[in-house]
Amino acid sequence: MSEVAEPEETTGAGQTGLPILEVADLGLTYPNGREVLNGVSFQVFAEETFVILGGSGCGKSTLLNILIGVLQPSCGRVRVTGQDIHRLHPAELKSIHLQCGMLFQSGALIESLSLLENVGLPLRQHYRRVAGDVLEETARLKLRMVGLEDHADKRPSGISGGMKKRAALARALALDPLLVFADEPTSGLDPVSTQEIDDLFIRLTRRIGAAAVVVTHDIASFFRIANRAILLGGERDGEYRGRVIMQGSRDDFRASSHPAVQRFLNTSLGAHPLS
Amino acid sequence: MITGKLTYFRLVTELGVSGVRTLLRPSTLSLDDTVAQMRSIGAGAVPTAGLIAVTAGFILALVLEVQLSQVGKVEMVPSLLWVILTEQVVPVGVALIFTGRSVSAVAAELGSMQVSEEVKALFTMGIDITPYLLLPRFLGFQIMLPMVTLLGIYAALFGGWLLCGPVLRMSLSDYIFYALDGSRFTSVLVALGKSALFGFIIATTALYKGMNVRHGSREISEATTQSVVVAVIMVTLADAAVTALELT
Ligand SMILES: Nc1ncnc2c1ncn2[C@@H]1O[C@H](COP(=O)(O)OP(=O)(O)OP(=O)(O)O)[C@@H](O)[C@H]1O
Ligand SMILES: [Mg+2]
Predict the structure, then answer these.
(1) What domains are there in chain A, each with its CATH number?
(2) Which residues of A touch B116 (CB under 8 A)?
(3) Which pLDDT score is estimated for B172?
């Protein structure tokens, strides 16, 4: 496995100062009575890549939806740059959103717009007074960063899954956010494209100095991009269901003897042979 | 609004608030989008609506002519046509055409935007869903339904003349004279009022059903079917209610 963009260098530096994202004692029970998250707490610091690991259906997307203020938690708090996002006025939440980028599991590009218009959308929203052609040029630049400048006028339905993810990444980074959320940025991609997206993701978030919160169940991705991570418990983890099983750096995970961590790493490693 | 259920009341309130805001600051509404929606929802319906209106006018004139000639009152055909077409047939007919063409399309489009997380993505980009997504579609129905209804009235009357002209040997000017003789011009206002009401009903039905899709393509097809059924029922009931009110 080639190690591109070794993330270790920024670990220590990132953890000084105040956290950008603070999650405290988060719990969520869906209206149908299904308890998905319970007592989840962690902090994310500037310029670090924080990974949320967990098996299918353990509540990773649910957690991310709470973090971006789309879903209201049953209990607990989420603070972004010190502000509790679930207690904010819509206008204040909007200004938080402008400092965050979000990369959805399916890409979530607007089907009726071209790639260029998709990337330009947050720009136009934020810089209302700036001339249209300046914004278009900026959007084109963002597309070039992800290598899609030749496909600027295509619709999302006309490009491959990997290209969709890259376009969505360009859109998420359009406003140079402080914090980027990504829901399984590499799901559904072959191992080579997975590595390409991972490398691109790390390179671009590092370049703009953003912190990243990445959800994945791909162990190979985890070892490539993570500074720190948490492992969420799912159905099979008994008392840990919906709770944080472990929190730590990649080395902590490698060294851990916790049976649930072992099980998660080993079964996944079987699918992705790593050195 | 994004993950929880969007109630009908909340939807109408949001549309109202956002509409007032747009009047105060027109720049919040995307003019391009609104025009595009008016074109696809309204202008696209003109050929179908026109054809059906001409046919309906012709058939109704034929029926009336056959019936009234038996009692020797054929000169009443144009004015009866006018009242029946303007106040009853055309407003409901055009509303039903809009329902078949666009209510299903808008509900399906919004539903698939929900499923593919596009609505969430807009929200997290700090974009207000109502002025960006809902208001242009609402205005597409609300503005275009009365306009196409007006066109439909002309088309249906013309269809009536296609029969009255050759069969009753009426020139177009005679036909118009007889049609307007003794009939109320307020019929047109009634027609426009009705179609504005129908426009509101079918627009909000489409938005409501589409925005409440959460996951899965099965939900999209369910929402699409339901939006059409509900819109048809609501338009029919509203028509009955308005007509009853008007005649008492
Ligand atoms: N709106 C909802 N109402 C009730 N239960 C839900 C709802 N949304 C999700 N769930 C349930 O909550 C659990 C967590 O779902 P979630 O989508 O967060 O999992 P995930 O970890 O992202 O899974 P995946 O890896 O498949 O994306 C699942 O068991 C799911 O069935
Ligand atoms: Mg998920």
Answers:
(1) 21-99+177-271 (3.40.50.300), 110-176 (no CATH)
(2) 106-108, 111
(3) 85
